[in-house]
Amino acid sequence: MHSTIAGLGEPRGPRFVSPDLSTDEQPPGSTSVAALLVTPAGPDDPADRSGAPAAAAARWPRLLLAGLTVVAVSAGAGGVAGHLTAGGAPTAAPPAGPAGDPAVDLVTAADQVLAGVVSVRVAGGGRGASGSGFLIDDRGHVVTNNHVVAGGGSIQVIGRDGRRLSARLVGRDPGTDIAVLRVDPGNGLRPLPLASAGQTRVGEPVLAVGSPLGLSGTVTAGIVSALDRPVRLGGGARQPAVQTDASINPGNSGGPLVNGRGEVVGVNTAIATLEGSGNIGIGFAIPVERAAQVARGLIARG
């Protein structure tokens, strides 16, 4: 995120590239100007009525292009003050409602997944970092983003009940921005189910779960806004991402994007911003099938 938010470190991360508008390439890993498709003025546009308004209208796309960037969303140097934990209180059963009610489905999904989502804290290497992660198997493997752990140092994960567990880095893949950690099994964390490939649909409700700004166990709701959106992640080549309007903020990096059945459909990784603003309703997640494939390879080699 931009340095206007205290304690989040330097801007860094990928850019979004519209499939409908080609732009000049920039060096991998740079935080750069994003491509934005701007519809030409039509017959009823005020820009057609005089030369001066037309010139002003011509400048507007350039101003937008200068302002819209996509950045990774882990909290950076020093972590974030005011970390809160869930306190381990029993969770009340979700309210009864009609079968298929999306609101009830999301309440149930949130209750199911929170037990498998962790805050990730990295200390050392001259600067700290924080993000989120989630358990993917009963052997203690945790998926997160590479940019959360890339700086090196000792790693801890914090569960829903506030317990801190030491974690070791199994492996990381900068090209896809995926990393895998491992904690001792038998820790009370619950592995999350993964959605089947090709089952995610535009418009379906989803939850982004993680620790934005250090607020662990945070759940935000939205929908799948688009699929196969080309995004540059981790400084590598562009890859298809899931776009969502569920609120994603610094510290959400590495947390799961889940559907109404409590299945992981993606790994929250980046957001678009305008002129250093926070979340504007455009976030990106690595599709779960790609994340799972990379994670399995890292586990096998680790």
Which ranges are low-confidence, i.e. pLDDT below 50, for 5 or more consecutive residues? 1-58, 60-66, 77-99
In helices, the fraction of residues equals 10-25%
**Average pLDDT taken over every residue:** 75
Q: What is the makeup of the main sheet? A: 6 strands, antiparallel, barrel
| Rg result | 20 Å
Named at the architecture level, the CATH assignment is Beta Barrel
Q: Which range does the strand content fall in?
A: 25-35%
Assigned CATH class: Mainly Beta
Domain module count: 1
Order of helices and strands: HEHEEEHEEEEEEEEEH
Structural category is: alpha+beta
Q: What is the tally of helical segments?
A: 4
CATH structural fold name: Thrombin, subunit H
Span between termini: 31 Å
- Strands, count: 13
Q: Give, in spatial order, the strands making up the sheet with the most strands.
A: 8-9-10-13-12-11
Shape: globular
Blueprint (SSEs and pairs):
Blueprint: H1 51-67, E1 68-72, H2 102-113, E2 117-123, E3 129-135, E4 141-145, H3 146-149, E5 154-158, E6 164-173, E7 178-182, E8 205-210, E9 218-232, E10 238-244, E11 256-259, E12 264-274, E13 283-287, H4 288-301
Antiparallel strand pairs: 1-12, 2-3, 2-5, 3-4, 4-7, 5-6, 6-7, 8-9, 8-11, 9-10, 10-13, 11-12, 12-13
Explain this structure:
The chain is an alpha+beta fold and 302 residues long. The chain has a single domain (74-302), classed as Thrombin, subunit H, CATH 2.40.10. It is built from four helices and 13 strands. The protein has a six-stranded antiparallel barrel. It has a six-stranded antiparallel barrel with strand order 2-3-4-7-6-5. The protein is globular. Residues 1-58, 60-66 and 77-99 have low confidence and may be disordered.
